[in-house]
Amino acid sequence: MPTPTELARRWFEEVWNDRREATVDELMAARMEGYMEGADIHTPADFKAARRQLLDAFPDLRVKVEDIVEQGNTAVLRWSVTATHRGAALQIPPTNRAVTFRGITWMEFQDEQLVRGWDSWNLGGLLQSLRL
Q1: What is the Cα–Cα distance from 28 to 44, expressed in whole angstroms?
Q2: What pLDDT shows up at residue 46?
Q3: pLDDT tens per residue across span 89-101
Q4: What is the CA radius of gyration of the chain?
Q5: How far is CA 94 from CA 7, 13, 90, in A?
Q6: What pTM was estimated for this model as a whole?
Q7: Which domains does the chain have, with CATH numbers?
Q8: Which of 25, 31, 40, 93 is the 20 to 30 A CA-CA neighbour of 129?
């Protein structure tokens, strides 16, 4: 049985970096409790919509997991992103600016599926940097 650390690493690598949408359906519970910057998530479809908006704005987005702490059925990750703003999905015309931002994600797994998750990163600061 995979550990929470292994599941979390797989989530970030496959869902974000490899763009494997099927991994969302495999690793996310049908009903879950999730909080992303700007969106509450309750189903895989909710997550896919929020993810699509971010990837439409930053099609080359890459996540680097910098650190993980595991306790029981949870994994907490510190990560960084590099990307280029090439889409208008965030209601800002593409700027073609390279951006970096950091965040933390808390993931709780049950039966090898994500049942709760919290993301914390500075979406407001990112949007402000794109409007300059």
Answers
A1: 6
A2: 96
A3: 778 899 999 999 9
A4: 14
A5: 33, 26, 9
A6: 0.93
A7: 4-131 (3.10.450.50)
A8: 40
pLDDT (mean) for 45-66: 96
Q: How many C-beta atoms lie closer than 10 Å to residue 70's C-beta?
A: 16
Got the DSSP string for 55-98? HHH-TT-EEEEEEEEEETTEEEEEEEEEEE----TTSS-----E
CA dist., res. 42 & res. 61, Å (int) = 24
The Cα-based distances of 27 to 2, 17, 101, 114 in angstroms read 11, 15, 25, 6
CA distance linking residue 53 with residue 22, whole number of Å: 17
User: How far is the C-alpha of 43 from the C-alpha of 26, rounded, in Å?
Assistant: 12
